[in-house]
Amino acid sequence: MATLPAHRTTDAEAAVAALRARFGAALQSGQAIRQQHGAQEGMAGGSLPDAVLFATGTGDVADAVAICAAHRFPVIAHGAGTSLEGQLCAVRGGLSLDLTGMNRVLEVNAADLDVRVEAGVTREALNAELRAQGLFFPLDPGANATLGGMAATRASGTNAVRYGTMREVTLGLTVVTAAGEVIRTGTRARKSAAGYDLTRLFVGSEGTLGIITELSLRVFGIPEQIASAVVQFERLEEAVGAVMLTMQMGLPVARIELLDPLQMDACIRYSKLEGFEVKPTLFLEFHGSAAGVAEQAEAFRAVASEFGGGTLTFATLTEDRNRLWKARHSAWFAAKALRPGAEAFATDACVPISRLADAIAEARAEAEAAGLIAPIVGHVGDGNFHMLLLFDPASHEERARAEALSARIADIAIRMGGTATGEHGIGLHKLSTMETEHGAGALAVMASLKRALDPLDILNPGKTVPLSSQAPGH
Amino acid sequence: MATLPAHRTTDAEAAVAALRARFGAALQSGQAIRQQHGAQEGMAGGSLPDAVLFATGTGDVADAVAICAAHRFPVIAHGAGTSLEGQLCAVRGGLSLDLTGMNRVLEVNAADLDVRVEAGVTREALNAELRAQGLFFPLDPGANATLGGMAATRASGTNAVRYGTMREVTLGLTVVTAAGEVIRTGTRARKSAAGYDLTRLFVGSEGTLGIITELSLRVFGIPEQIASAVVQFERLEEAVGAVMLTMQMGLPVARIELLDPLQMDACIRYSKLEGFEVKPTLFLEFHGSAAGVAEQAEAFRAVASEFGGGTLTFATLTEDRNRLWKARHSAWFAAKALRPGAEAFATDACVPISRLADAIAEARAEAEAAGLIAPIVGHVGDGNFHMLLLFDPASHEERARAEALSARIADIAIRMGGTATGEHGIGLHKLSTMETEHGAGALAVMASLKRALDPLDILNPGKTVPLSSQAPGH
């Protein structure tokens, strides 16, 4: 395959004309639609695509990519648009390929606990479809993301501590390559040793190696018993200590989420949570048989008490549990309400569990030094926590301070043997962390994979792997 | 990177001389040593390497690969030598890189439930080291394989149904690239969304993309309670039916292994198992708290009884459990003893659980039509079963019949949405299944990855991805 310069050599108008000739009204280029597909939460001045295609199936995607390849025109897959690291900014223009119309659940294989879906199905839509059969799909990034987008960013959420991330639950994919060819990866078998693991190469590649159009996913039986619980602590270190011991004991909690006092204050006000104090707080969930849940809860109660935790407040009714987790999933909006008019982005450090208390303490110290409002919320069972950095979008200085703080927190995580991003991905916004985290050698390997699978650099160019690593001849 | 013809253009003598100049007595080229490193169980006339290097560390591996690259000399990583699909046959000669001397456990991080080991540490050696800390590493291919070899072949074993395969338990790797550079993949964090998943690209790549020299692996706390159990059925379909329902219920069994009557007969005789009949049999293991194990066992007892299973015989004493699992791990040798002098290879079909009964029934019918002695044993909770095909190594006709049967069983699995190999890998022996399983498009993507990471085709050439797919200019 030929290696071409990374710079844009295409004629956007010719590309858009060719796409319009094939797709007619499904191709749109109005300012509002382009704006909607290029601007991203927290990202400075998002770059807009030249046009947006509303795809209706894998065939559309293959045709569109083939046309883009012929014109060396960038193409950016687009789901619910809820990614957080600038994955959708069209830094060199191009086509935004909107997959939300590809929203069919193609198969539910209850006997095998797997499903096949189009990439535009959202996690909530899938769960609505599964519920009647006693099944559920556990992964829940805060937003109602599409499953294609979740695979592309290797998303996880509150249940990952028990059920794994998109890396673990994705069995296979249908992918359109950079040449516009349709390939399938993986099988419906639970394991395979047959060749290179293409499924997990595309999961997390943010649309830079291929475009995911269909997914086979594991699903799970709804547990016989589900109990949510809340426990509050006097000091943050105590809450974190309880989490660390819980994980080290191997207690199979389904969810264990930390909210620091500032975040708890925001959630109490925003979601009108009653009966809680402004203190470091853990939200938990236990899944299993009735006896199993009781046993887990009792074991956790002993741990929490050892760390000075207050009474464990249980919610077992679906309605009560939903209110609790809705508050957790609204944490982002609750935090933003702490400073009306502010923009925000979230750090995403993830560390070995033994370093969690140190990592959070260092991050808090950095935030205090930076003087920013920065509540903490996190999937702490995985060692993953988010600090939401609020800043005035009109102030370049404040944004720069937030960016610098974000970079320092990434460095802290990497230094502790962890990662700059547990679940939000790299996109544009974390490109600068890649060499620190992976080293120049591994990054060069990633760049050679990008060149091998996308030699014209048309698939979401400029994302995931820094452009400098993609320089020909490296 | 340049693309070169796949054929050997090297001067083996010059390459060996250069290696000898660097490594002295650690490089050996005696016939016996070469024979030991090139001949493989069940493989016809294994091809021998030109020399064997006993590496003592990652630096040795990097230097050796750099010398091999300079001479375009093949290099084949070698662990315990227990792979089953011809992964170690030196089809174009070259250097066998023996990593068994790299056998240090570098770190045990009990608080994070992870370890760092050199590639030559065996699973039994790791477990011996972990036991005193109350930890264990669950994956157990039958042989006492090295952990580097297990990662390279994406191995699993009897516990994978509960703990996952090498795909799930490998956190990160140190890898020597085809250019002799040392890179690190992954972190010690439990999850990450930072770029391409190099760890899982190297896991299962059989030494064709890079050479694994160190691994970070998840380990687990030894469960509070472990109970093994055996239950026998009148008919194979009933035993399989019980497995399917167990998995569909989501019962978290740690092991659930099937032995058909022929394999059970072999094991009773070979391992002097007492108190069992020659019937379809399940060996199980339950891990958890005392109450949890009792609950799982009771739930399974109800399932087994529904399918006409006999009494559940428990073994909770370590000694009794060990005898049972030693018999299971000796199944290969027990089966070979059914026909003294015979050679054998194992099929490795893995299917969605709902198709397991059909797959086994079709495989048995094919084996009967082929007139071969072919006991069945399998990790049936994963949908994975092995048929051990015994044949007279002196009879070309019998070997050909066994090969044809093996190919038909692979086809059955693939047709049912499964894979030709659940855990043994591709090597040389299953190359012909790759296009059927993955399709030409996905296979071409794998070939382009191979070309990108190993442009000189020196890393275990001729394995994993069929050479025809690696032709330049694809």
Give an account of the 3D structure.
Two copies of one chain form a homodimer. Chain A has helices at 12-23, 31-38, 58-70, 123-130, 147-152, 160-163, 166-169, 198-202, 236-248, 261-270, 290-306, 318-329, 331-336, 356-370, 396-415, 434-453; strands spanning 27-28, 51-54, 75-78, 95-98, 105-109, 114-118, 135-136, 170-176, 182-186, 211-218, 220-221, 225-232, 255-259, 281-288, 313-315, 343-346, 376-379, 384-391. The two termini of chain A are 16 Å apart. Chain A is built from 16 helices and 18 strands. Chain A has 474 residues and is an alpha+beta fold. Among the domains of chain A are: 105-221, Uridine Diphospho-n-acetylenolpyruvylglucosamine Reductase, domain 3; 225-332, Alpha-Beta Plaits, CATH 3.30.70.2190; 339-429, Alpha-Beta Plaits (2-Layer Sandwich). The interface between A and B is large, with 90 and 90 residues.
Question: How much helix is in the residues of chain A?
Answer: 25-40%
What is the arithmetic mean of pLDDT of chain A?
94
CATH topology of the domain at 105-221 in chain A: Uridine Diphospho-n-acetylenolpyruvylglucosamine Reductase, domain 3
Number of helices of chain A: 16
Low-confidence stretches of chain A: 1-8, 470-474
CATH architecture of the domain at 105-221 in chain A: 2-Layer Sandwich
Structural class of chain A: alpha+beta
Integer-rounded radius of gyration of chain A = 22 Å
Distance between the termini of chain A: 16 Å
Describe the oligomeric state of these chains in a short phrase. Answer: homodimer
Beta-strand residue fraction of chain A: 15-25%
The most extensive contact between chains is: A-B, 90 and 90 residues
Number of strands of chain A: 18
Shape of chain A: globular
- Name the strands of the widest sheet of chain A in spatial order: 15-12-14-13-17-18-16
- Under CATH at level 1, the class of the domain at 105-221 in chain A stands as Alpha Beta
Specify the biggest β-sheet of chain A: 7 strands, antiparallel
